[in-house]
Design a protein that fits this description.
Blueprint (H helix, E strand, L loop, with lengths): L5 H17 L4 E8 L2 E9 L12 E2 L3 H16 L22 H5 L22 H7 L17 H15 L3 H10 L19 E3 L6 E3 L15 E2 L1 H11 L9 H8 L3 E2 L7 E3 L4 E5 L2 E10 L2 E8 L4 E7 L9 H12 L14 H4 L3 E5 L2 E8 L3 E6 L7 E5 L5 E3 L8 E4 L3 E4 L2 E4 L19
Antiparallel strand pairs: 1-2, 1-12, 3-6, 4-5, 7-8, 8-9, 9-10, 10-11, 11-12, 13-14, 13-20, 14-15, 15-16, 16-17, 17-18, 18-19, 19-20
Helix pairs in contact: 1-9, 2-5, 2-6
Organism: Nonomuraea pusilla
InterPro entries: AmpC-like, Beta-lactam-related, Beta-lactam/transpept-like, DUF7586
Pfam families: Beta-lactamase (PF00144), DUF7586 (PF24491)
């Protein structure tokens, strides 16, 4: 079950073995996905006396949130809701009716982290009506939109939103729209054999304590699902861009855009729409961590490299934070990806005539043709407003990213009009329609 070389596989397995031994983890599995396929799998420890396999179930915990968020984004793409809709539009009667769907997805709603119940991860769950009866204005801890504040309760409400719009329980919607189409047939709401038992490991002795497992009911969308390394590898491939018919790639890219970030001089972690984000060693990763009593799991994807990496373990705490990035580093050290071979492509002569230098005032920009009649506009020297543009049916181009994302580029013989900014072939060309006019250069 490996596409990597023997030396690479050994180095990867050793890193996993160190993790399991030094952190006293009852069992742990890990996998790497490359180009949509399982490239490596490893397991250490024991589950019912045998090594764990790619078919052994573990709890996903909050990775469940990303799967629920995918259904919410499908509803958005279908026109059943807008991300700017308030909760009242679809789930009236809560004290949080003014928060938006986007704020719930991105944990910027200001809602409390945990529901007003007993420790929900270790006790039987409540039905939605019972949960909502307990929720009051005091569960709003921050002004909506003010800051990132992780909210399990928010995802419980998103699950109910899905249920009302789909007319069936959130779990059925997830199974029908995400799990089955992706072939994640071993991902279930409750454990099924072979599955790991969740344990807490004593901090000062080599003994374990079994952790309880219950149906979270209304809080299920926040962390209910169980899965296997095999299935989670398919989810990693999805996150890396192999979305099949489940979600438009553009929508997945939208989910990766940071809506909230950890405060600091430069952000290294944040949250999009249902996806956690991280910057590690030059990589831009998206995925999610998962934690439930007795279980830890994480899945990250690097779409730029078409890579995914994951681990699943049956321990309440103790895993190091660097396992997955270490595995990616080992893969990169031993088997770095080769760049795609360059080859020429056909280009419209009219597009070729647009290429080259353009000036925004005195600043030089380079316009290049990309595959699919797309364009890129980047500063020649230093930083600045770089963007890519995709062609539109009316002969214009639409900004794809950067400062000009969503803005329109129009091309004329002697100038470019980019959302009122005029780019000319020479700095402030007097023959071009430069707003304010051009009086000429002076000594």
């Amino acid at each position: 079950m490996s596409q990597v070389g023997q030396t690479t596989a050994r180095a990867l397995l050793r890193r996993l073995a160190v993790e399991q031994a030094e952190n006293r983890v009852p069992s742990v599995t890990a996998a790497i996905v490359r180009d949509g396929r399982l490239a490596w799998f490893g397991g250490r420890g024991r589950v019912d006396g045998a090594p764990p396999t790619a078919a052994t179930q573990y709890r996903l915990g909050s990775i469940t949130k990303s799967i629920v968020a995918t259904v919410v984004m499908r509803l958005r793409d279908e026109g059943a809701l807008r991300l700017a809709d308030t909760l009242d539009a679809h789930l009236p009667g809560t004290p949080f009716g003014h928060v938006t769907v986007a704020q719930l997805l991105s944990h910027t709603s200001g809602m409390t982290a945990e529901p007003p119940t007993e420790w929900w991860e270790r006790t039987p769950g409540l039905k939605t009506g019972e949960l909502l009866d307990r929720v009051g204005p005091g569960e709003l801890k921050h002004r909506p939109g003010r800051r990132f504040h992780y909210s399990n309760l928010g995802y419980g409400l998103l699950g109910e939103l899905v249920a009302r719009l789909r007319g069936r329980p959130w779990l059925e919607a997830v199974e029908e729209e995400v799990l089955r189409p992706l072939g994640m047939n071993a991902t279930t709401a409750r454990p099924r054999p072979p599955h790991a038992t969740g344990y807490a490991v004593h901090p000062w002795a080599d003994v374990v304590l079994p952790e309880p497992e219950h149906d979270a009911v209304a809080m299920g969308p926040a962390g209910q699902l169980w899965s296997t390394p095999h299935d989670l590898a398919r989810w990693a491939a999805f996150l890396a861009g192999d979305t099949g018919d489940v979600l438009c790639r553009d929508t997945l890219e939208e989910m990766r855009e940071p809506a909230g970030v950890a405060d600091g001089d430069s952000w290294t972690s944040g949250y999009g729409l249902g996806l956690q984000l991280a910057r590690e060693g030059g990589r831009r990763l998206s995925g999610h961590t998962g934690s439930m009593p007795g279980f830890l799991a994480t899945v990250w994807a690097d779409p730029a490299e078409r890579l995914g990496v994951l681990f699943m373990a049956n321990t309440t705490s103790g895993m190091s934070g660097g396992l997955l990035t270490d595995l990616l580093d080992i893969l990169d050290e031993h088997e770095p990806r080769l760049p795609e071979e360059w080859e020429p492509v056909a280009a419209d002569p009219g597009l070729l005539a647009l290429t080259g230098l353009w000036y925004w005032g005195p600043k030089a920009y380079a316009l290049r043709v990309l595959p699919g009649r797309c364009l890129s506009l980047t500063p020649v020297v230093g930083g600045g407003r770089a963007s890519r543009f995709v062609p539109q049916d009316d002969g214009t181009w639409l900004g794809l990213d950067g400062y000009y994302a969503g803005e329109t580029l129009r091309a004329a013989d002697d100038h470019l009009d980019l959302n009122t900014f005029i780019f000319t072939r020479t700095p402030y060309d007097p023959a071009a329609p430069v707003p304010g006019g051009v009086t000429g250069w002076k000594a």
